[in-house]
Design brief:
The protein has about 475 residues and is an alpha+beta fold. About 20% of the residues lie in helices and about 35% in strands.
């Protein structure tokens, strides 16, 4: 009797103390008040969510060539035809149905280069799937189930900005290919920006067990809503060590919206400014107590930032009421804003706080003139494009960067064999400046004894001389 009374008193005090300091949170989150509550089960959530989580199987055909086949003597004695043998490579991951029509979200790295993609539901049925959209910048891909008109169970998105460290979450996927598996844990950290997995480095960290095969699977909250897409783990052994990373639902929502609208690429707001991190030295020079925020390094003339009044050396500290700790955090917050309207950013200029409204509009992307070079030259087989503001934004280049960028390479092309890489920016060829893709196409079609090439790779200028 005394024990139950004392337990009730302590519980009431705990709840009252929590409610006093955070009334809203107290209504949603509390410590278990009795042993009976510790015996509660996640089964109702799992039963509701599990049918919307799928397994994704991707297969691609690669040419596997034995070097001995190049030896005519070997072929003569063993009668082996000098041709490449095909080999099928398979990858396994997870996915989440996010629309009842059969739209599935997974990771790009799960289906990258796939010739065939299959999706297996929790009830063991399999469907062929087509790739609707791939967004390498966020490592998210959207698939659509083929040849079906039924309605599928789908997960709703939660507002990932409302998640808190300590919230309980469930991870559902297909680790190591053993079959659909559920693990539970808590959100260990939010806004992890130094992970280095995607362009938008802003991840939910969880200690729910995530292993190879979980990629593309669901991280769900206690309301059974999608909190994120499990993407990567930190591990020295290859298995779960309690540090997993998920792409927040608000970023997933943007990619899915682009797929639903029929787009083949994700449209995001363009800032029109280059940002840099605040180092301790910069913080000291600006009189800041700590090195936080995103420092404006340069502003594109006539871009959204310039029109809003943003200037070089301004320090961005927040956007729409949310604190910005570094450029990665700002990139994520800005990229997840819906197009149209404006975003209000908090700025410090010469120690004075300012509020600026920046229009949420896409970067100009006309004039890419993407083409594949076919003429016999060191560039043969390279897919090239004129650098537009939109492409410069994708490649994290200064908006005034001029040149022709290699956007893709044929696997056995002359350009690949010479050593060109995707992302190389061709600045000049034989002392002729390359501004547009047609400039490089014209030069590549001319017969040359020597090719003197100036290119930009990883921010470093390289000069190369090749024979004709």
């Amino acid at each position: 009797m005394f024990r139950s009374t004392w337990t009730a008193v302590v519980t009431a005090l705990c709840i009252a103390f929590s409610a006093h300091f955070n009334p809203a949170a107290a209504q949603d989150r509390r410590v278990p008040s009795s042993p009976a509550e510790l015996r509660l089960s996640y089964a109702p959530i799992v039963q509701r969510v599990q049918p919307a989580v799928v397994n994704v199987y991707a297969a691609k055909v690669v040419q596997n060539r034995n070097p001995l086949l190049d030896d005519p003597i070997f072929r003569r004695f063993f009668g082996v035809p000098g041709q490449q043998q095909e080999q099928v490579q398979r990858s396994l991951g997870s996915g989440v149905i996010v629309d009842s029509s059969g739209l599935v979200v997974t990771n790009v790295h799960v289906i990258e280069g796939a010739d065939q993609v299959k999706v297996s539901l929790s009830d063991k049925r399999e469907f062929e799937a087509e790739i609707v959209l791939k967004d390498s910048r966020s490592d998210l891909a959207v698939l659509r189930l083929k040849d079906t008109k039924e309605k599928f169970p789908a997960l709703e998105f939660t507002n990932s900005d409302e998640l808190m460290v300590g919230d309980v979450v469930l991870a559902i996927g297909n680790p190591f290919g053993v079959g659909q598996t559920v693990t539970h844990g808590i959100i260990s950290a939010l806004a992890r920006t130094q992970v280095g997995i995607t362009d938008y480095q802003f991840f939910i960290q969880t200690d729910a067990a995530i292993n190879p095969g979980n990629s593309g699977g669901a991280l769900v909250d206690m309301n059974g809503r999608l909190a994120g897409i499990n993407t990567a783990i930190y591990s020295r052994s290859g298995g779960s060590q309690g540090i997993g990373f998920a792409i927040p639902a608000n970023m997933v929502r943007v990619v899915v919206a682009s797929a639903k609208s029929g787009g083949t690429a994700v449209k995001r707001p363009w800032l029109g400014a280059k940002l840099q991190a605040v180092t301790p030295e910069i913080a000291e020079s600006l009189g800041l107590r700590s090195p936080t925020g995103a420092l404006v390094a340069s502003v594109v003339p006539n871009g959204p930032a310039a029109k809003a009044g943003l200037k070089s050396s301004d320090l961005i500290t927040g956007i729409d009421g949310q604190t910005v700790d570094d450029p990665n955090a700002f990139d994520y917050r800005f990229a997840t804003r819906p197009l149209g309207g404006s975003a209000q950013i908090d700025v410090q200029r010469s120690g004075r706080p300012l509020k600026l409204a920046i229009a949420l509009e896409t970067a100009p992307d006309t004039g890419r003139n993407e083409l594949v070079l076919t003429a016999r030259s060191p560039f043969q087989g390279a897919k090239i494009s004129t650098i537009t503001p939109a492409l410069a934004d994708e490649l994290h280049l200064d908006a005034d960067t001029e040149g022709v960028v290699i956007t893709d390479l044929g696997g056995d092309s002359a350009a690949a064999n010479v050593g060109f890489q995707k992302g190389d920016i061709i600045l000049a060829v034989n002392n002729q400046k390359m501004v547009k893709s047609v400039d490089l196409e014209r030069v590549a079609s001319e017969r040359q004894r020597l090719w003197r090439i100036t290119l930009l790779r990883g921010g470093q200028q390289i000069n190369v001389t090749l024979g004709g």
